[in-house]
Amino acid sequence: MSKPSAEPAPPGEPPPEVSDEDLLAESLVTPERFAAIFDRYAPVVHGYLSRRVGVLADDLMSETFLLAFRGRDEYVPGRAPVRAWLFGIATNLVRRHARDEERRYRAFGRAAGRLEVTTELGEVAGRVDAHALRGELADALASLAGEDRDVLLLWTYPQLSYAEIAVALDIPVGTVRSRLHRARGKVRERLGDRWLTTEETA
């Protein structure tokens, strides 16, 4: 008895082995292909944005993918993964709301003493320090320069590599390293010895 063949992909859905780069290239001819990129990355992009700008995440996620769709012909295959390119767009949009983000973290810091620990900062805390009080972490994040916070949060939540962060923010890898070192140092000052000491490799 012959082995049953694999179940075909649903109509309109590319097979799972199609790479992000190929999907993006195909979308230049067949725009509907871009929907697969959205399906793959919308949840993680939304999670990243929600941790940075809260209720604005829905709007900024929509704008991120709209800009990506309109500018998909500018993506350079092989330079960096598609996800790094998407997070670069999302981070540029966050920068327009830097004051909202800082106020959000300061509000978390004030609320932490009155409320049970939430999961909003859990992903960041998991990389910086699993035992740090979320209130102290929120205060530390609010105190960072925007460019340093961008690097730290791209390293912590979506866990981009140094090379991917460099592409996302259009800066040299050396600058990524120095900004991350500075950001982690400032967080360390706030949290004492409660931080992750294992250095990420590029």
Automatic annotation (TrEMBL):
Biased composition, class Pro residues, residue ranges: 7-17
Chain segments annotated as transmembrane: none
Pfam families (UniProt xref): Sigma70_r2, Sigma70_r4_2
Location of the RNA polymerase sigma factor 70 region 4 type domain: 135-186
Keyword Transcription: yes
Gene3D superfamilies: 1.10.1740.10, Winged helix-like DNA-binding domain superfamily/Winged helix DNA-binding domain (1.10.10.10)
UniProt keyword Nucleus, yes or no: no
Ranges in coiled-coil conformation: none
Record keywords, A-Z: Sigma factor, Transcription, Transcription regulation
The organism's place on the tree of life at top rank: Bacteria
Region Disordered, annotated ranges: 1-21
Domain RNA polymerase sigma-70 region: 38-103
Family: Belongs to the sigma-70 factor family. ECF subfamily.
Name the record gives this protein: RNA polymerase sigma factor
